[in-house]
Amino acid sequence: MNYDIPFNKPFLTGKEVHYISDAVQTGKISGNGKYTKKCQDFFKNTYGFGKCMLTTSCTDALEMAAILINIQPGDEVIMPSYTFVSTANAFVLRGAKIVFIDSQNNHPGMDADLIEDAITGKTKAIVPVHYAGVACNMDKIMALANAYNLFVVEDAAQAIDSYYTFPDGTKKALGTIGHLATFSFHETKNIISGEGGMLVVNDPQFMDRAEIIWEKGTNRSSFFRGEVDKYGWVDVGSSFLPSEIISAFLWAQLENLETIQTKRIQIWQTYYEGLKDWAAQNNISMPHIPTYATNNGHMFYLVFKNTTKRAKAIEKLKSHGILSVFHYLSLHESPFYKNKHDGRQLPLTNHYSNCLLRLPMYYELSVADTNKIIKLLNEVQL
Ligand SMILES: *Cc1c(COP(=O)(O)O)cnc(C)c1O
């Protein structure tokens, strides 16, 4: 079915093809060239990230993180069950056992108060996912990581241009806090390159090795800097870096980051204002932004009381040519992991899985269309 209002529409700023053709004309279109460096420098300078390395996806960046923290078979990694499959898969590929914990009752992000109970002698890392670009309780998570000597890998796939404020008032960009962090530039995210991602290495102990893993296990990067006179196979690795064609596309997006963010947050606020009374009358939860977090306009969602009520809203929108979607099927109950899950009950994960609905959210969503969606939802009797 074709929808008049799709769920997502990739936004082109207008300069993408121009920069791609520039990259092609320079004659260097493999990775780690001019546009890769421009993007990496932009991220570092804008957000204060540690070492930035573009990757072909957030999935790849997560796989690099799992290699860097040296996950061995049997190591345990704590993360929410309510997340995209790659958050877990990257660690499972290295033999990790995933210990899934539940979401918060007022936010689908993981409940930091449940982490300590899940820590054992085998725990190696905590992977907080900043759901909808809204920060997890990073103060608590970092304190636990320090106390138990664990690594923190922020899955910041949805969290570009969002911040966390520590109890002492220090405000830091998401992706600067964990030892490592990963971002996605998939076409469904705020800033896009089709497929694309980035690994942020904040802990200096990982910086040299990250470059090697990125370059197929070779010391090619130090060779090009003239630090070694031959390059060869020095570690494990894979082909994680994107071509200059992808980076050139991303650069066009980054030049327009502020405009994109302002527009998305406007749409988000229009939804919020237009739906809050109807939501209150119908027992629907609106997105919650804790005082320590910011909103980056990544996603607008509603949480219904049950699946039937959600289905009514989906049907109403669909009958007017509007696509709304839900996600994630709880990973602890997935066909692949249900027999491996430790049996922990995760009722809120299942609640979000059954009751959360995402509304269309993209740069070109017009005010008229946003208002049409609001009006139709206000007509839904639950
Ligand atoms: C989108 C997403 C990913 C995967 O990103 P890709 O770039 O498509 O690999 C991982 N984790 C979360 C939370 C995501 O939203």
Strand content: 5-15%
Biggest sheet strand line-up: 1-9-8-5-4-2-3
**Residue ranges: pLDDT <50 for 5 or more in a row?**
none
CATH topology of the largest domain: Aspartate Aminotransferase, domain 2
- CATH class of the largest domain reads Alpha Beta
Q: What shape does the CA trace take?
A: globular
CATH homologous superfamily title of the largest domain: Type I PLP-dependent aspartate aminotransferase-like (Major domain)
Based on CA atoms alone, the radius of gyration comes out at: 21 Å
Bound molecules: pyridoxal-5'-phosphate
By oligomeric state, this entry counts as single chain
Mean pLDDT: 97
Terminal residue distance: 26 Å
Structural class: alpha/beta
Supply the number of structural domains: 2
Secondary structure tally, helices: 13
Please count the beta strands (DSSP E, at least 2 residues each). Answer: 11
Please describe the biggest sheet, giving its number of strands, its sense, and whether it closes into a barrel. Answer: 7 strands, mixed
Account of the 3D structure:
- Belongs to the DegT/DnrJ/EryC1 family.
- It is an enzyme of class 2 (transferase).
- With 382 residues, the chain is α/β, with parallel strands linked by helices.
- The protein folds into two domains: 16-254, Aspartate Aminotransferase, domain 2; 257-378, Aspartate Aminotransferase, domain 1 (Alpha-Beta Complex), CATH 3.90.1150.
- The protein is built from 13 helices and eleven strands.
- It has helices spanning 16-26, 34-47, 58-68, 85-92, 115-118, 138-148, 207-214, 220-224, 244-254, 257-281, 307-318, 347-355, 367-378, and strands at residues 51-55, 76-80, 97-101, 123-126, 151-155, 163-165, 171-173, 180-184, 197-201, 301-303, 356-358.
- The protein has a seven-stranded mixed beta sheet, sandwiched between helices. A two-stranded antiparallel sheet has the order 6-7. It has a two-stranded antiparallel ribbon with strand order 10-11.
- Helix 10 runs parallel beside helix 13 (367-378).
- It binds pyridoxal-5'-phosphate.
- Residues 57-59, 83-84, 86-87, 129, 155, 157-158, 184, 186, 197 line the site of pyridoxal-5'-phosphate (PLP).
